[in-house]
Amino acid sequence: MRNTIKISVAVAAVTAVALGASACSAPSDTTASSDKSDKNAPLVVAASPTPHGTILDFVKNKLAAKEGLKLVVKPFNDYKIPNKVTDDGQVDANFFQHKPFLDTFNKENGTHIVPVVNVLIEPLGVYSKKIDKLSDLKSGSTISVPNDPSNEGRALKLLADNGVITLKPGVGSDAKLTDVKDNKGIKITELEAAQTAPRIDDVDAAIINGNFAIGAHLKPSTDALALEKATDNPYANFLAVKKGNENDPRIKKLAKLLNSPEVKKFIQDKYKDGSVIPAFGPAKS
């Protein structure tokens, strides 16, 4: 991977990463979550492996016992299953998504998932193994973008902010392909978010969610041709539960730990490349 243009990520505000899905199935031992009537039972949380699962494993191994919390982490490389198994009670909570994605998912699937506490931001980035800078993209070039509505809008805005395409006036991060006013001859290909990194060789450039970039051993600060800015970005990733479970004592313990100084330091130390940024605070319902 070539080192490329660094676009600074302001350490502030709320944002990030979100979502799409591979055709991965749920782990076989996810069929039963903890006993809801037993508040001392293990808390089962579905999460993207990186960085969400990594952070939860840190909490599990280093912090949970002090709070009397038993934590079970269930990794998913899929952005659809975690909300479904949370809604039907197979797991107690999930940690992988941002608000625009959740709003769309709840509306389209009739689920009732609500955010609890913000934890991190993962800036969306443009990556390539074929070009060294965005200006190398010409008519006939190909770019892949995540195909879920929230991340596709983010991706198109990122391209527009960097002069690759032009969007219709007044269109922002809710953009659709039909909102592209001028693609300058560049072909935009839609892929499930989890496939943008594995299939990067198939296109001239790919817009990849932060967690999938990390999983593909990409370093946003050095490998990204462009990164979205964190400032005023509404894509914070949060802990989420089925509506009505927000006051579960175990959820409150986990929310407190996920916003602890120890987790902040862990994120800053582990993700020094700017791929993950702490974004603590209450999540908007």
TrEMBL record:
Location in or out of the cell: Membrane
Membrane topology of the entry: Lipid-anchor
Residues of the signal peptide: 1-23
Principal cellular location given in the protein's record: membrane
Source superkingdom: Bacteria
Lipidation (S-diacylglycerol cysteine): 24
InterPro entries according to UniProt: Lipoprotein_NlpA
Pfam families membership: Lipoprotein_9
Keywords for this protein: Lipoprotein, Membrane, Palmitate, Signal
GO cellular component, one term: membrane
Family statement drawn from the similarity comment of this UniProt entry: Belongs to the nlpA lipoprotein family.
UniProt protein name: Lipoprotein
